[in-house]
Amino acid sequence: MPSGYQTLTAATQGTENFHLVCTNAAASIPADASVTVGAAPVSPPATAYRVTEGHDGILTTSNGISFPANSTPTWTVDLGAPLSYPLIAGGMVFVATANPDGSYGNRLYALNATTGATVWGRSRSRVPTSGPA
């Protein structure tokens, strides 16, 4: 009989029954256990652009496996200036840019997450500052 720790791996969904015996120098204690394995939870939609620090949508594991093997954006959009890190909520992608004409301030855009179409864009002519805490 094996001693120490033993990892039990369920290969499929369902319930498996195990008979365990815990033994030390003083006694042995038998016990029965049932383990039910269900479907893996469904991940919520991404709330940040393309999952990884490189924003390429490809996750590479510590053993070098890439998932997916390649990634292609669903859509792209040119707002005329560098973009902030996008946030995704309520079916929209929110990004900020510098003003495309180079004037002082910035613009905040809401883009349709499915199509990339601009839902709205707002200018901000001053940079917010924080006051005393």
> Residue-averaged pLDDT, rounded?
74
Give the terminus-to-terminus CA distance.
Answer: 65 Å
- The arrangement of helices and strands along the chain is EEEEEEEE
Rg to the nearest angstrom?
A: 26 Å
In the predicted model, the low-confidence regions spanning at least 5 consecutive residues are: none
| Strand line-up across the major sheet | 5-6-7-8
What's the count of strands? Answer: 8
Tertiary shape: rod-shaped
Task: Figure out the total of helices.
Answer: 0
How many strands, what sense, and barrel or not for the largest sheet? 4 strands, antiparallel
The assigned structural class equals mainly beta
User: In percent, how much strand structure appears in the residues?
Assistant: 35-45%
Share in helix = under 10%
Question: Could you describe the 3D structure shown?
Answer:
The structure is a single chain. The chain is mostly beta strands and 133 residues long. The chain contains no helices and eight strands. The protein has strands at 14-23, 28-37, 59-60, 66-67, 87-89, 92-98, 106-112, 118-124. The strands form three sheets. A four-stranded antiparallel β-sheet has the order 5-6-7-8, with no helix packed on it. A hairpin with a 4-residue loop joins strand 1 (14-23) and strand 2 (28-37).
Keywords:
133 residues, mainly beta, two-stranded antiparallel sheet, four-stranded antiparallel beta sheet
Question: Mind sketching the topology for me?
Answer:
Layout (H helix, E strand, L loop, with lengths): L13 E10 L4 E10 L21 E2 L5 E2 L19 E3 L2 E7 L7 E7 L5 E7 L9
Quick summary:
Strand 3 (59-60) and strand 4 form a beta hairpin.
